[in-house]
Amino acid sequence: MNISMRDKKLLLMFSGVAVFGLGWFFGYRPQMEEAANIEAANKPLEERLSNLLELAGNRDFYISETENAQNKINEYVSKFPSDVKEENGIVLAQNIENSLGMQISNVGIATKEFVASIDGSTEEEIAEQNETMSEQANSQTREQIDEIEGTDSKAAEELQNASDIAAAQTDSTSQTPVLYRTQDTLEFTGTYANLKDVVAYLAEQTGRLTVDNMNASYDTSTGYLTGSIVVNMFSMTGTGNTYTEPDAGQVAYGTSNLFGTLEKATANTAQTSEENGSDGQSDNGQEGENTDETAAPADDQGQS
After folding, report:
1. What confidence tens digit (pLDDT) does each residue in 3-55 have?
2. Is residue 219 included in any domain, yes or no?
3. Which among 110, 147, 159, 236 could bridge 183 via Cys, Cβ 3.0 to 4.6 Å?
4. Confidence at residue 136, expressed as pLDDT on a 0 to 100 scale
5. Predicted TM-score (pTM) above 0.85
6. Given 189, 210, 243, which residue is the final one in a domain?
7. DSSP state of 33
8. What's the total number of domains in the chain?
9. In a domain, 231, yes or no
Protein backbone atom coordinates (compact mmCIF):
# COMPACT_ATOMS: atom_id res chain seq x y z
CA MET A 1 0.00 0.00 0.00
CA ASN A 2 1.48 3.25 -1.03
CA ILE A 3 1.09 6.22 1.35
CA SER A 4 1.71 9.61 0.10
CA MET A 5 4.12 11.98 1.73
CA ARG A 6 1.25 14.20 2.78
CA ASP A 7 -0.51 11.32 4.55
CA LYS A 8 2.71 10.38 6.25
CA LYS A 9 3.09 13.87 7.62
CA LEU A 10 -0.53 13.90 8.84
CA LEU A 11 -0.12 10.49 10.45
CA LEU A 12 3.09 11.53 12.12
CA MET A 13 1.42 14.67 13.43
CA PHE A 14 -1.53 12.74 14.86
CA SER A 15 0.82 10.21 16.39
CA GLY A 16 2.73 12.99 18.12
CA VAL A 17 -0.46 14.51 19.44
CA ALA A 18 -1.58 11.08 20.70
CA VAL A 19 1.75 10.50 22.42
CA PHE A 20 1.63 13.93 24.00
CA GLY A 21 -1.98 13.36 25.22
CA LEU A 22 -1.15 9.99 26.65
CA GLY A 23 1.93 11.39 28.34
CA TRP A 24 -0.02 14.25 29.86
CA PHE A 25 -2.90 12.07 30.96
CA PHE A 26 -0.89 9.17 32.40
CA GLY A 27 2.31 10.93 33.35
CA TYR A 28 2.16 14.67 33.87
CA ARG A 29 -1.35 14.89 35.36
CA PRO A 30 -0.76 12.32 38.19
CA GLN A 31 2.52 13.99 39.02
CA MET A 32 0.82 17.39 39.26
CA GLU A 33 -1.93 15.97 41.49
CA GLU A 34 0.67 14.34 43.73
CA ALA A 35 2.62 17.60 43.90
CA ALA A 36 -0.56 19.48 44.86
CA ASN A 37 -1.29 16.93 47.62
CA ILE A 38 2.26 17.21 48.93
CA GLU A 39 2.01 20.99 48.94
CA ALA A 40 -1.30 20.84 50.84
CA ALA A 41 0.22 18.42 53.36
CA ASN A 42 3.27 20.63 53.80
CA LYS A 43 1.26 23.71 54.84
CA PRO A 44 0.40 22.52 58.38
CA LEU A 45 3.92 21.13 58.72
CA GLU A 46 5.36 24.49 57.76
CA GLU A 47 3.12 26.20 60.33
CA ARG A 48 4.17 23.65 62.95
CA LEU A 49 7.82 24.19 62.07
CA SER A 50 7.37 27.93 62.37
CA ASN A 51 5.81 27.54 65.82
CA LEU A 52 8.59 25.20 66.95
CA LEU A 53 11.24 27.62 65.77
CA GLU A 54 9.50 30.40 67.68
CA LEU A 55 9.32 28.23 70.79
CA ALA A 56 12.96 27.31 70.43
CA GLY A 57 13.85 30.97 70.22
CA ASN A 58 11.96 31.64 73.50
CA ARG A 59 13.08 28.41 75.19
CA ASP A 60 14.71 30.03 78.21
CA PHE A 61 11.70 32.26 78.81
CA TYR A 62 9.26 29.36 78.74
CA ILE A 63 11.44 27.23 81.03
CA SER A 64 11.68 30.08 83.54
CA GLU A 65 7.95 30.77 83.47
CA THR A 66 7.14 27.07 83.81
CA GLU A 67 9.37 26.77 86.87
CA ASN A 68 7.77 29.85 88.44
CA ALA A 69 4.29 28.51 87.79
CA GLN A 70 5.22 25.10 89.22
CA ASN A 71 6.71 26.71 92.32
CA LYS A 72 3.51 28.68 92.86
CA ILE A 73 1.46 25.52 92.46
CA ASN A 74 3.67 23.64 94.93
CA GLU A 75 3.46 26.49 97.42
CA TYR A 76 -0.32 26.62 97.10
CA VAL A 77 -0.73 22.86 97.34
CA SER A 78 1.55 22.59 100.39
CA LYS A 79 -0.92 24.66 102.43
CA PHE A 80 -3.54 21.92 102.22
CA PRO A 81 -3.51 19.18 104.85
CA SER A 82 -3.41 15.63 103.55
CA ASP A 83 -6.60 14.71 105.38
CA VAL A 84 -9.36 16.11 107.62
CA LYS A 85 -10.78 13.85 110.31
CA GLU A 86 -13.46 14.10 112.96
CA GLU A 87 -11.05 15.33 115.62
CA ASN A 88 -10.11 18.35 113.49
CA GLY A 89 -13.65 19.73 113.72
CA ILE A 90 -13.88 18.99 117.43
CA VAL A 91 -10.55 20.65 118.22
CA LEU A 92 -11.52 23.65 116.06
CA ALA A 93 -14.70 24.10 118.12
CA GLN A 94 -12.69 23.73 121.34
CA ASN A 95 -10.18 26.36 120.25
CA ILE A 96 -12.96 28.77 119.32
CA GLU A 97 -14.47 28.36 122.77
CA ASN A 98 -11.14 28.81 124.56
CA SER A 99 -9.90 31.71 122.41
CA LEU A 100 -13.06 33.71 121.77
CA GLY A 101 -15.35 32.81 124.63
CA MET A 102 -18.13 31.65 122.32
CA GLN A 103 -20.07 28.62 123.49
CA ILE A 104 -20.24 25.74 120.98
CA SER A 105 -23.09 23.45 121.95
CA ASN A 106 -22.87 20.97 119.09
CA VAL A 107 -20.47 19.98 116.29
CA GLY A 108 -21.95 18.30 113.22
CA ILE A 109 -19.32 16.49 111.15
CA ALA A 110 -20.10 15.57 107.53
CA THR A 111 -18.38 13.05 105.29
CA LYS A 112 -15.49 14.00 103.01
CA GLU A 113 -16.61 15.03 99.53
CA PHE A 114 -14.69 15.00 96.23
CA VAL A 115 -14.24 18.49 94.77
CA ALA A 116 -11.79 18.30 91.85
CA SER A 117 -8.57 16.77 90.56
CA ILE A 118 -5.65 18.82 89.32
CA ASP A 119 -5.58 16.89 86.03
CA GLY A 120 -9.35 16.99 85.51
CA SER A 121 -9.98 13.34 86.41
CA THR A 122 -13.34 12.36 87.85
CA GLU A 123 -13.84 10.63 91.18
CA GLU A 124 -14.61 7.32 89.42
CA GLU A 125 -11.43 7.51 87.33
CA ILE A 126 -9.29 8.21 90.40
CA ALA A 127 -10.87 5.32 92.30
CA GLU A 128 -10.23 3.01 89.36
CA GLN A 129 -6.62 4.20 89.13
CA ASN A 130 -6.03 3.59 92.85
CA GLU A 131 -7.60 0.14 92.57
CA THR A 132 -5.34 -0.75 89.65
CA MET A 133 -2.22 0.43 91.50
CA SER A 134 -3.25 -1.52 94.59
CA GLU A 135 -3.80 -4.69 92.56
CA GLN A 136 -0.39 -4.34 90.89
CA ALA A 137 1.33 -3.86 94.23
CA ASN A 138 -0.47 -6.87 95.70
CA SER A 139 0.42 -9.00 92.66
CA GLN A 140 4.13 -8.18 92.94
CA THR A 141 4.12 -8.81 96.67
CA ARG A 142 2.27 -12.09 96.20
CA GLU A 143 4.98 -13.30 93.84
CA GLN A 144 7.69 -12.37 96.35
CA ILE A 145 5.80 -14.13 99.14
CA ASP A 146 5.43 -17.27 97.06
CA GLU A 147 9.18 -17.28 96.41
CA ILE A 148 10.23 -17.02 100.07
CA GLU A 149 7.27 -18.68 101.76
CA GLY A 150 8.84 -22.14 101.56
CA THR A 151 12.13 -21.03 103.12
CA ASP A 152 11.22 -18.30 105.62
CA SER A 153 7.63 -18.05 106.81
CA LYS A 154 8.40 -15.15 109.15
CA ALA A 155 9.82 -13.03 106.34
CA ALA A 156 6.77 -13.85 104.23
CA GLU A 157 4.48 -12.71 107.02
CA GLU A 158 6.41 -9.44 107.45
CA LEU A 159 6.27 -8.83 103.71
CA GLN A 160 2.51 -9.43 103.70
CA ASN A 161 2.02 -6.91 106.52
CA ALA A 162 4.10 -4.34 104.64
CA SER A 163 2.03 -5.03 101.53
CA ASP A 164 -1.22 -4.44 103.43
CA ILE A 165 0.07 -1.11 104.75
CA ALA A 166 1.25 -0.02 101.30
CA ALA A 167 -2.10 -0.99 99.79
CA ALA A 168 -3.96 1.03 102.40
CA GLN A 169 -1.77 4.05 101.69
CA THR A 170 -2.32 3.64 97.96
CA ASP A 171 -6.10 3.54 98.44
CA SER A 172 -6.13 6.69 100.55
CA THR A 173 -3.58 8.73 98.56
CA SER A 174 -3.50 8.96 94.79
CA GLN A 175 -0.50 10.09 92.74
CA THR A 176 -2.52 12.99 91.33
CA PRO A 177 -3.39 15.85 93.72
CA VAL A 178 -7.10 15.60 94.51
CA LEU A 179 -9.06 18.20 96.48
CA TYR A 180 -11.66 17.14 99.07
CA ARG A 181 -14.04 19.11 101.29
CA THR A 182 -15.46 18.32 104.72
CA GLN A 183 -18.29 20.51 106.03
CA ASP A 184 -18.56 20.92 109.81
CA THR A 185 -21.57 22.62 111.37
CA LEU A 186 -20.93 24.52 114.62
CA GLU A 187 -23.96 25.44 116.70
CA PHE A 188 -23.07 28.44 118.85
CA THR A 189 -24.27 30.86 121.48
CA GLY A 190 -22.51 34.21 121.80
CA THR A 191 -22.45 37.90 121.10
CA TYR A 192 -22.25 39.79 117.80
CA ALA A 193 -18.62 40.58 118.58
CA ASN A 194 -17.96 36.84 118.99
CA LEU A 195 -19.49 36.26 115.58
CA LYS A 196 -17.11 38.71 113.90
CA ASP A 197 -14.17 37.31 115.84
CA VAL A 198 -14.94 33.80 114.57
CA VAL A 199 -14.69 34.95 110.95
CA ALA A 200 -11.34 36.60 111.62
CA TYR A 201 -10.15 33.55 113.58
CA LEU A 202 -10.96 31.15 110.75
CA ALA A 203 -9.18 33.40 108.24
CA GLU A 204 -6.00 33.24 110.36
CA GLN A 205 -5.84 29.43 110.48
CA THR A 206 -3.02 27.67 108.66
CA GLY A 207 -5.39 25.05 107.25
CA ARG A 208 -7.61 25.81 104.28
CA LEU A 209 -10.88 26.91 105.92
CA THR A 210 -13.78 28.92 104.56
CA VAL A 211 -17.19 29.88 105.92
CA ASP A 212 -19.83 28.28 103.73
CA ASN A 213 -22.83 29.94 105.41
CA MET A 214 -23.84 31.43 108.74
CA ASN A 215 -27.24 31.69 110.43
CA ALA A 216 -27.90 33.65 113.62
CA SER A 217 -30.96 34.79 115.56
CA TYR A 218 -31.38 36.96 118.64
CA ASP A 219 -32.53 35.19 121.79
CA THR A 220 -34.62 37.65 123.80
CA SER A 221 -34.50 35.47 126.90
CA THR A 222 -30.71 35.51 127.18
CA GLY A 223 -29.70 38.51 125.10
CA TYR A 224 -27.27 36.39 123.04
CA LEU A 225 -27.15 35.27 119.44
CA THR A 226 -27.80 31.62 118.69
CA GLY A 227 -27.29 29.91 115.37
CA SER A 228 -24.92 27.81 113.31
CA ILE A 229 -21.78 28.24 111.23
CA VAL A 230 -20.98 25.84 108.39
CA VAL A 231 -17.20 25.63 107.92
CA ASN A 232 -15.57 24.14 104.82
CA MET A 233 -12.41 22.25 105.78
CA PHE A 234 -10.37 21.38 102.67
CA SER A 235 -7.76 18.66 102.28
CA MET A 236 -5.69 17.41 99.35
CA THR A 237 -4.20 14.00 98.70
CA GLY A 238 -1.31 13.19 96.39
CA THR A 239 0.85 16.09 97.58
CA GLY A 240 3.34 14.12 99.67
CA ASN A 241 2.13 15.76 102.89
CA THR A 242 1.48 13.58 105.93
CA TYR A 243 -1.45 13.86 108.30
CA THR A 244 -0.73 15.68 111.56
CA GLU A 245 -3.04 15.12 114.50
CA PRO A 246 -4.46 18.34 115.99
CA ASP A 247 -3.24 19.41 119.40
CA ALA A 248 -6.16 19.15 121.80
CA GLY A 249 -4.11 20.36 124.78
CA GLN A 250 -4.63 18.98 128.27
CA VAL A 251 -7.84 16.97 128.45
CA ALA A 252 -9.32 15.64 131.69
CA TYR A 253 -10.28 12.01 131.12
CA GLY A 254 -12.34 11.61 134.30
CA THR A 255 -12.41 11.91 138.10
CA SER A 256 -11.90 9.36 140.82
CA ASN A 257 -15.21 10.28 142.46
CA LEU A 258 -18.20 11.77 140.69
CA PHE A 259 -19.46 13.18 144.03
CA GLY A 260 -16.44 15.24 144.91
CA THR A 261 -18.43 17.64 147.08
CA LEU A 262 -19.84 14.83 149.22
CA GLU A 263 -16.43 13.26 149.50
CA LYS A 264 -15.01 16.54 150.72
CA ALA A 265 -17.79 16.90 153.26
CA THR A 266 -17.20 13.35 154.52
CA ALA A 267 -13.50 14.02 154.82
CA ASN A 268 -14.20 17.16 156.87
CA THR A 269 -16.57 15.20 159.13
CA ALA A 270 -14.02 12.45 159.62
CA GLN A 271 -11.34 15.02 160.41
CA THR A 272 -13.61 16.69 162.98
CA SER A 273 -14.43 13.35 164.59
CA GLU A 274 -10.78 12.45 164.72
CA GLU A 275 -9.94 15.74 166.40
CA ASN A 276 -12.74 15.24 168.93
CA GLY A 277 -11.57 11.70 169.58
CA SER A 278 -8.04 12.87 170.15
CA ASP A 279 -9.21 15.45 172.73
CA GLY A 280 -11.30 12.86 174.56
CA GLN A 281 -8.41 10.43 174.62
CA SER A 282 -6.17 13.13 176.02
CA ASP A 283 -8.66 13.97 178.74
CA ASN A 284 -9.23 10.35 179.62
CA GLY A 285 -5.52 9.76 179.80
CA GLN A 286 -5.10 12.71 182.09
CA GLU A 287 -7.92 11.50 184.26
CA GLY A 288 -6.39 8.06 184.44
CA GLU A 289 -3.12 9.47 185.55
CA ASN A 290 -4.84 11.51 188.24
CA THR A 291 -6.74 8.46 189.43
CA ASP A 292 -3.58 6.47 189.73
CA GLU A 293 -1.87 9.21 191.67
CA THR A 294 -4.84 9.50 194.02
CA ALA A 295 -5.14 5.79 194.60
CA ALA A 296 -1.49 5.29 195.39
CA PRO A 297 -1.53 6.89 198.83
CA ALA A 298 -4.54 4.81 199.84
CA ASP A 299 -2.59 1.65 199.15
CA ASP A 300 0.28 2.97 201.15
CA GLN A 301 -2.03 3.64 204.10
CA GLY A 302 -3.50 0.25 203.81
CA GLN A 303 -0.05 -1.35 203.93
CA SER A 304 1.02 0.68 206.93
Report:
1. 777 777 777 787 877 877 777 777 777 888 888 888 888 888 888 899 899 88
2. yes
3. 110
4. 57
5. no
6. 243
7. H
8. 2
9. yes
